[in-house]
Amino acid sequence: MDRRGFLSAGMAAGVAAGMSGLGGAGASVAAALERIPGWGRGKTMADGTLRLSSNENPLGLAPAAREAVIEALIHAGRYPGEFTAPLYPQLAEYVGVGEENILFGAGSTEILQIIVQAYQGPGVPLIMAEPTFEDVLRYQGPLSYHLQMVPLKADHSHDLVRMRELAEVGRRPAVVYICNPNNPTGTVTPARELDEWIAEAPESTLFLVDEAYHEYAEDPAYASALHWINEKPNVIVVRTFSKIFGMAGLRLGYGLAHPDTLDRLRLFTISNNPNILAAAAAMASMEDEAIMAQSLQVNREARDVTHRALDEMGLEYLPSHANFLMHRIPGDLGEYIGRMRAEGIRVGRPFPPMTGWNRISFGLPEEMDRWAGALRRFRTMGRI
Amino acid sequence: MDRRGFLSAGMAAGVAAGMSGLGGAGASVAAALERIPGWGRGKTMADGTLRLSSNENPLGLAPAAREAVIEALIHAGRYPGEFTAPLYPQLAEYVGVGEENILFGAGSTEILQIIVQAYQGPGVPLIMAEPTFEDVLRYQGPLSYHLQMVPLKADHSHDLVRMRELAEVGRRPAVVYICNPNNPTGTVTPARELDEWIAEAPESTLFLVDEAYHEYAEDPAYASALHWINEKPNVIVVRTFSKIFGMAGLRLGYGLAHPDTLDRLRLFTISNNPNILAAAAAMASMEDEAIMAQSLQVNREARDVTHRALDEMGLEYLPSHANFLMHRIPGDLGEYIGRMRAEGIRVGRPFPPMTGWNRISFGLPEEMDRWAGALRRFRTMGRI
What we know:
By secondary structure, the first copy, chain A, is α/β, with parallel strands linked by helices.
């Protein structure tokens, strides 16, 4: 059945049947949606395309969050302000900060843009790794920064020594972007090294620490930079509901920083953000303790399938501390991406200069099996 | 019943009952929601507060749009790109422009911010009326414009003659913000006057025409500036789904301009906007031809109730070409706002220098009766 019309055409009956099947006062529309064809988990689209290209959560929006969105529809015609206000104390408690340390954005990417705008100045060094997440690069495009790209080290962690040298030339203001764990490599930059620099840096060095994949990081060398924010107004931590909570389509992220720092950032925010439905989904997601555990469990299982396939093929890969990994591709990357697309599988985009590698996002374990099957066929055909 | 828990606690049964009552293939979850207590129309909140303060649509999100949001929940975990792509051709056809003329934002306010950022420069005049919608004023705060506030004329239309004088000093670049119909006055600036200026202006004068209330304007003197966009890259029209489509909580607006102009603006956009649920609601709203007619009809009825009450009280008001109006308040505005709040009614905020006036947003006709009742009590008590 065409998904676009399934609600009006037949879903009402389906939901009703699902609900009577569930029975009892605890039954919900949102849970019943799970029983409707096309509402299952995974990254396989209606046309069969497997989307392993965007670091999304294969579990999608959690049932509790779907329910909260449906409930919040009653307020959808109203400006967000008072309806999103309860998000502040709830996130504050969840993360362990004060409400005055929180700034919400339309995805963590809005926070990245705000920071890039708020700290710009002619010739101010903007120091970032190569490769890393591209949005900061895009946002500085029309501004007058002095862009400094620093290649990752051999272990694909950030080269903090080189970045620090560039930041400390003349002790002028500088903005340092550190994505940890790093996208697209999935690797961790050790907290010990970063903490040492932050502890010694002048306040004119702004540390923009992007922790979009924070919840996935299990390496003991990793730690959040969050503990700095009240002591150091020049440290901003950025996180998101897009990944661990499967909310990429709803656009909700946040920055965590000293209140004085947020005052500066707030001059560059958009009015009336975040949207009401994203806020409702986020509040329900934080209340449901099972969501994070499930997301992490599925991610581990999918990563294991991916590791086994790559081991079998003898293809090198980087240790993953996120919901994706990067692995070697013998031959041309563009050709590989095109061939996977011909198999109905979308894999990661190029991240120069790592043209000998491909980023693969984790789907469900069985979806990684499908990808592994394509890899095996490529091997048989001498393509990899 | 507490709304927060009504879905999980009892709504499933309620929806099921509603649906079996509706029966047939055309029944939908979204329509059934209308039957659940608390899902009715209007601006009266769960605690009884009547919210006539934010120019929202009292009909809220239309049933067809609610249904589309529920359907789109399946994609809520994915990044918007391909799921929001169909919005472009649909809006293009709806508005009568090309897809290349459209830029979406998180509300029209994001488009306002982008324009203010993209055309900034040291000492560039930013010329706007006083009072007008405040977001442009907020967004230029941290930038280096030369702000020029021009009082409205006696008829509360924009003083285009004075604005033009300021724009043409030295024929340097200038940004002109024109909100038409104007918020908070609800008045129209005649298209004939604006067209004359646009026709003769140098390309260095950027016209930012905010038409958030476009659909409500019935004055024959009003016309959109949209017809200029392909001939004049220095004309940008901004509109929104927040008002006529009751989508304020979902955050979706758009700019309409020459493709070259949008290329310049796109450097300042946020990645991955708009959110998937707003896009789904917008597409369904444009498909449903009844929504706009219903919104306009309810607005006219509420305006009539408002006019009658103000006539009865002998309180002057401005002609309204929007979903609100401005009327005289004898005495102190802050005191009036506070007294209305004590009655459980929120009215508009102060818009200096019009401190002798209050802006009232239209609710349902019966909600305007409640407001009129409070006015009458104030009169009896000698307060107005």
